């Protein structure tokens, strides 16, 4: 343990046997076979394949984004490999009108909303990447840990107040549960019955802090009890379990509950969903996980790879064959390649960096902008763009 409380490499991190946890809800076994007594979500074959396609697109995007960062074509990136099942499965359980507010790793939610092309420019430093996803009912990503939770609850409260039949799914990590914003948001949601789904991605780590150093509670889901609503644990690497749990929570949140209904009357409640999963890669492309965990700590979790598991399910139940898998992979490669081509075709205006923070620029910032504009005039905008 270092002076910041971070685990030394090799310190006990999350469970060494992820399947040993019996209070975690699952539909699929590690190979994607339905578990005995599991209820398979009632979805069309086409929808099952769409879930698989979105998982494959998210994985492909992740691989390419890490590689682009290594080539200097994007600045930094937060990899999501291992966590696609929860983001994709849960978003498929929502209606398009429902709002999503996420941290910075739940790229799968954006893929399900078909916004990858609009979104990738954000990672390349273009503000347009956050604006565009609003059209798909996705709030901009959030780097300030847990700071988006009160906003998400506020949006949910507004939906409820206006009798607008929408819920808000707000995604965050286990580390976010140590922030005051998390507790304030949870309390408000519980008292005012806001239709909020708190989606906690327990990926075992908050950068180098293992989950055991994050909380003394038995589980993250248990925290909901203190705020008067239900918390549930689900295997976030099982896309169908993530779908089923989110659907149920969304239905419960959607049914009613209004700002003027007294709290604690047993009416509809928000929900906390703890997705139990693992981050296969680095925290971000600026991180080296071998500084705080052994490389082989990942192995027991790789067995639960959400992409392989969903493929296993589709094969096992006769919904896909080799040809179907190959065609989805090809489609995913093309979707991601097109998104990259689009993002790299944007010619940024260096002065954009002064937009969107102030309605009226303060004098010092105005002076800086004018200085930049004068330099652009003198040297040409090309001089300020990345070298190819
Ligand atoms: C308010 C705030 N404090 C600290 C940080 C620095 N920081 C960036 S990511 C991170 C860890 C977050 O962990 P978790 O919420 O578990 O999400 P994960 O990265 O594992 O997906 C921290 C502390 C920050 N971005 N915002």
Automatic annotation (TrEMBL):
Any one biological process term the GO annotation gives: sulfur compound biosynthetic process
One MF term in the entry's GO annotations: oxidoreductase activity, acting on the aldehyde or oxo group of donors, disulfide as acceptor
Keywords: Oxidoreductase, Pyruvate
Pfam families (UniProt xref): E1_dh (PF00676)
InterPro entries: Alpha-ketoacid_DH_E1_comp, DH_E1, THDP-binding
UniProt keyword Oxidoreductase, yes or no: yes
Domain Dehydrogenase E1 component: 55-345
PANTHER family in the cross-refs: 2-OXOISOVALERATE DEHYDROGENASE SUBUNIT ALPHA, MITOCHONDRIAL
Protein's UniProt name: Pyruvate dehydrogenase (Acetyl-transferring) E1 component subunit alpha
Species in which this protein is naturally found: Halorubrum persicum
């Amino acid at each position: 343990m270092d002076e910041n409380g971070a685990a030394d490499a090799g310190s006990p991190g999350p469970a060494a046997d992820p399947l040993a946890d019996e209070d975690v809800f699952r539909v699929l076994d590690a190979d994607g076979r339905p578990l005995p007594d599991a209820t398979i979500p009632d979805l069309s074959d086409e929808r099952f394949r769409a879930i698989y396609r979105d998982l494959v697109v998210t994985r492909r995007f992740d691989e390419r984004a890490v590689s682009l960062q290594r080539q200097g074509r994007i600045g930094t990136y937060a990899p999501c490999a291992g966590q696609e099942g929860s983001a994709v499965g849960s978003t498929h359980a929502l209606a398009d009108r429902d709002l999503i507010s996420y941290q910075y790793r739940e790229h799968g939610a954006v893929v399900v909303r078909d916004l990858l092309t609009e979104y990738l420019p954000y990672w390349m430093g273009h503000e347009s990447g956050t604006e565009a996803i609003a059209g798909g009912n996705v709030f901009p990503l959030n780097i300030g840990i847990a700071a988006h939770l009160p906003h998400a609850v506020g949006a949910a409260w507004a939906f409820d107040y206006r009798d607008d039949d929408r819920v808000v799914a707000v995604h965050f990590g286990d580390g976010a549960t140590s922030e005051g914003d998390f507790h304030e948001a949870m309390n408000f949601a519980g008292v005012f019955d806001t239709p909020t789904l708190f989606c906690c991605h327990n990926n075992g780590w908050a950068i180098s802090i293992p989950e055991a150093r994050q909380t003394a509670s038995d589980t993250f889901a248990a925290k909901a009890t203190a705020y008067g609503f239900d918390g549930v644990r689900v295997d976030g690497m099982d896309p169908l379990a993530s779908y089923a749990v989110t659907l149920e929570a969304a239905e419960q949140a959607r049914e009613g509950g209004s700002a003027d209904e007294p709290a604690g009357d047993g009416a509809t409640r928000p929900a906390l969903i703890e997705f139990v999963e693992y981050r296969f890669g680095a925290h971000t492309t600026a991180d080296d996980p071998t500084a705080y965990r052994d490389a082989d700590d990942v192995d027991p979790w790789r067995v639960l790879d959400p992409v392989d598991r969903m493929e296993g399910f589709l094969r096992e139940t006769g919904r896909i064959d080799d040809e179907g898998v190959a065609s989805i992979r090809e489609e995913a490669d093309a979707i991601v390649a097109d998104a990259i081509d689009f993002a790299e075709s944007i010619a940024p205006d260096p002065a954009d960096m002064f937009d969107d923070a102030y309605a009226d620029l303060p004098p010092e910032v105005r002076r800086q902008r004018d200085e930049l504009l004068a330099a652009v005039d003198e040297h040409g905008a090309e001089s300020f763009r990345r070298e190819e």
